Amino acid sequence: MKLCAVSVDLDEIPNYFRIHGLGEPGPLSRHAVYDVAIDRLLAMAAAGGMPLTLFAIGSDLARPESATKLRQAREAGHEMANHTLDHRYDLTRLERAEIAHQIGAGADAIERATGERPVGFRAPGYTITDQVFSVLRELEVTYDSSVFPCPAYYAAKAAALGMIRLRGRTSHSVLDTPRVLTAPVQPYRAGVPYWKPAQEGVLELPVQVTRGLRLPVIGTSITLAGPARARMLTRMCVGMPLVNLELHGIDVLDAGDGLDALLPYQPDVRVSRERKLESLHAAFDTLRNAGYSFVTLREAAAAFS
After folding, report:
1. Domain extents for the chain?
2. Which of 162, 160, 168, 158 has the alpha carbon at shortest distance from 265?
3. What predicted TM-score, i.e. pTM, was given to this entire model?
4. 3-state SS, one letter per residue, for 201-241
């Protein structure tokens, strides 16, 4: 079995300002993911002949234009999945009742907007705990895709948060436990603690890393790598039963989409959207040529159940 699932976290631009401890974005860029990126993502998916799994934030769908765009994506055959109600980076630090509200109300909002109740979940910032998994079990979520066992990403995130503090700003982002780095890199049933597999539990579909060094294979690393290195990075995953490529809406945006304020903080914003799409298609083509079939995460979960 050789499956590839391409998922996209539809984090709107204010979330990136919160990561970097900045103020609020201007009105022209505030909704760039729903107003601009979704159309590019759907065009990318159509060109590649592949379905997407879209992780939506429930509160974004209170805006009618955003709800309409998500519904259109569902009608085009893409899967809807849950990225919580408010994208609280501190989800894991909340009381259990509030965690359940963030997850359950997020699913409710997506169902109202699209007519489809999501069966999959991804935590903000890839940060999850045993308590969150317990809530997922209680809410009968079919699969989770939050675990990112990537040393390079973990180190880079820790360093970035340290630099933000040194510069006198406060990031909303939260660092996971380093024990996540010992989690399996392929689908498994999350036990207690969640980084250890068990016979029963929520099915975990980890975010993609390479064999060996567990380098990150996500939208940011692919778009920054450029097409040639994107092919090399993706080839380091060939042979794994599931390649779970996780992107963000910002991976098809650039400074020309009103993101100038992020230029000093986000290197990927400096890459043109044309170059980003070229790199992403290079990764997709590498996997397709290696015999991978493209599926939604729901379909991948069914295959690995």
Report:
1. 3-304
2. 160
3. 0.97
4. CCEECCCCECCCCCCECEHHHHHHHHHHHHHHHHHCCCCCC
d(CA 301, CA 235): 23
Cβ atoms within 10 A of the Cβ of 44, count?
22
CATH number of 3-304: 3.20.20.370
How many angstroms separate the Cα of 142 from the Cα of each of 73, 81, 301?
21, 11, 8
**Over the stretch 63-111, which tens digit does the pLDDT of each residue have?**
999 999 999 999 999 999 999 999 999 999 999 999 999 999 999 999 9
* Structure token pair of residue 232: 């090399």
**Tokens of residue 192, six digits:** 């207690």
User: CA-CA distance, 303 to 96, in Å (whole number)?
Assistant: 31
**Contact between 131 and 192 (Cβ < 8 Å):** no
Scanning the structure block, which residue is given the tokens 């159940």? 305
Say how far apart CA 26 and CA 73 lie, in whole Å: 26
Locate 274 and state its tokens: 């044309």
d(CA 99, CA 214): 30
Q: List CB contacts of 85: < 8 A, sequence separation 6 or more.
A: 57, 58, 59, 101, 102, 103, 105, 106, 109
Residue length of the chain: 305
Structure tokens at 116: 């489809």
Asked, as a colleague might, if the bond just before 241 is cis with ω within 30 of 0, I would say no
The Cα–Cα gap between 210 and 243 comes to 9
- Which are the contacts of 109, defined by CB distance < 8 A and separation ≥ 6? 56, 58, 59, 61, 62, 85
Report CA torsion sign: 108, 114, 116, 122: negative
Q: Tell me 58's DSSP state.
A: G
Structure confidence at residue 134 (pLDDT): 98
